[in-house]
Amino acid sequence: MTKVVILAEKPSQAKAYAEAFTILEKTKTYILLKPDDIFPDGATITWGVGHLVELKEPHDYKPEWKKWKLDQLPIVPEKFYEKVSKGKWEQFQAVKKLFQQANVIVNAADVDREGSNIFYSILRLTGVKEKPIRRLWINSLEKDEVRKGFRNLQNNEKDLRLFDEAKARQISDWMVGINASRLFTLLLQKKGFASYLTIGRVQSPTVYLIYQRHKEIESFQSEPFYQIEGSFQAAAGTYKGMAEVKEKDKTKVQAIMDEHGLKEKESLTGLVQTINKKTKHQKSPKLHSLSTLQSVANRRWKYTPSHVLKTLQKLYEKRLVSYPRTDCNFITENEFAYLVKNLNSYQGVLNISFTPASLKPNKRYVNGSKVQEHYAIIPTKSAPTSKKLSGLSREEQNIYHEILATTLAMFHTDYVYEETTIFTNVHDLPFKTTGKREVKSGWKELFPKPSKSKQEKEPNLPNVQKGEKVGAEVHIKESMTQPPKPYTEGQLINMMKTCGKLMDDEADVEILKEVEGLGTEATRASIIETIKAQKYIEVRKNTVSITNKGIMLCEAIEGTLLSSPSMTAKWESYLKKIGSGEGSKQVFIKQTSQFIEKLMQDTPGSIQKVSIRSTGEKKKWNEPIAKCPACSKGSIVDRYKFYGCSAYKEGCKVTFPKKLAGKALTRNTIKTLCERKQTKVLKGFKGKKTFSTALALDEDYKIKFCFKDSGMGVK
């Protein structure tokens, strides 16, 4: 009898896999499947809970590395080890036991390098060795795709290389984050800084690019410029035009007016000299990758990139869309074939009907050579019923409709419009007028119509005739040059993806183009959330601005590789080599150590130029919050990732999390718990649904929910 154990990344993924088979038994930690033609002896599905294991922290290697001290740097363990993540011991033990009993283990975590990392990190910590490992590699959670994937499991050769790539990335990010954050924070605290900085290989250059835009806006000096505008009255209506004159010096513009005998607000006669009409065709947009969808959703509905990814993940788990964390805009002929079969049902979902322009694959959208691990985000074969659609949240409906419309658009006709250019002569000075008229809406009928204000920017032109005389009035128009606009969150995603365009070194530009900028498709949204949480940037009404703390960070890292996307370019380029078997994890980690050594030497001198600013954080991050409720010696202080007792060396083990059931616990909440043992009812906790509850301390000084004081007690 062959015992097959399948590891999913999270419970929702395990549930989706299980629903493609017949379930024999469900428990808290695994699901048993009945035997069938794919698994003749049945199979067991278990799962991680996000990251079941994580890299050990500095103090796990040496107790003296717990305190932030300059003389302890650099912190570079001889060998890196994992440990079970806090609060996940029970699930880890269940996975370990199942792995020990297995004859074959299947990695069914997400199909990317981090999925490989999660699986092999867990496997390594269980100590289970020399068992056959297979890899599930699918792009959809639909029943037939899941079954097809399990029927055609892959070997783990590529998976192991991806694990090496991911582990090299994880260890190097750990080394940079731990050492650079402590180094810069401690040196700045010597100058009077009352908070702390976190520094990361990707997050820091991202903040620096926002800082560069901030400096461009701040240093911008608006200047006037002058043009000559004409207003014309034709038999068929009015229109405006501009002379091809643009000068900073008003006297030069006035001289041109004088040369042509033109006076402001004088009734003149113009002559329609030429009318050029061109019919133009616009093809439908490319299929969505994650970043293009994040940009569109941010522009249209002001959704944050992380909210788009969460919404997409829900749609994926509901089997409505394909794998979300993709950087690809293409599909293969296999996907194209099923889309063709389902065209009518997809049109029904959008409540629209059109005759496809072509049912043959077009290289603009269908190109197997451009598809690597994942194809573009498209609807699955299962078109939702109206009942299922109405059960989706407004955000889910909007995102699904956008994906569906973009997919259907490749079967639709081109958008056709007529572009008209009119030249009107007034006293031998030509004025240019351009306008656009829709001829055929084509694929655009699938999308929401643009707002009226957008349409007003492209006014309809009257039907004038060549040689027609028109009434004319001209004037000098004064305008001001405009500074660059701050980024929106959607533009931030694009900026991270295309930051190679901002760099001078051609080699770095090429590498960044190849690796697609800062971060990966899957991580950009979380990087933006991280720099928001660290208070380096603020987002108000979808506009991103840098804070005083962010400016200080950028002044501190200015001139180092930490401020430049080029470090990420070089790192990502080498990481890809590890993934393809051409590079070495050990070499990469050694190079990171050398980079940290150089940072240790250079930073003390460069930090002198940084101006200490008020960050709005009133208290030092490690100042006492309240007396420890358990011991009489210590105080509860902020330990960066959690709250804990300052008397831990004397044996007090009291700690509190910074987040509980999806809600951040503030210093005031912790203070109230320590002093009064219970809080008032707090909103915003997340379970299957959002809920409210009071918090209380139990006899072991652990935080518990207090529903009886929340109006939610059991009757």
Automatic annotation (TrEMBL):
This is DNA topoisomerase. InterPro entries: Topo_IA, Topo_IA_2, Topo_IA_AS, Topo_IA_cen, Topo_IA_cen_sub1, Topo_IA_cen_sub2, Topo_IA_cen_sub3, Topo_IA_core_domain. Its EC number is 5.6.2.1. Keywords: DNA-binding, Isomerase, Magnesium, Metal-binding, Topoisomerase. Residues 159-600 form the Topo IA-type catalytic domain. SMART domains: TOP1Ac (SM00437), TOP1Bc (SM00436), TOPRIM (SM00493). PANTHER family: DNA TOPOISOMERASE 3-ALPHA, PROKARYOTIC DNA TOPOISOMERASE. It holds the Pfam family Topoisom_bac. Belongs to the type IA topoisomerase family. It catalyses: ATP-independent breakage of single-stranded DNA, followed by passage and rejoining.
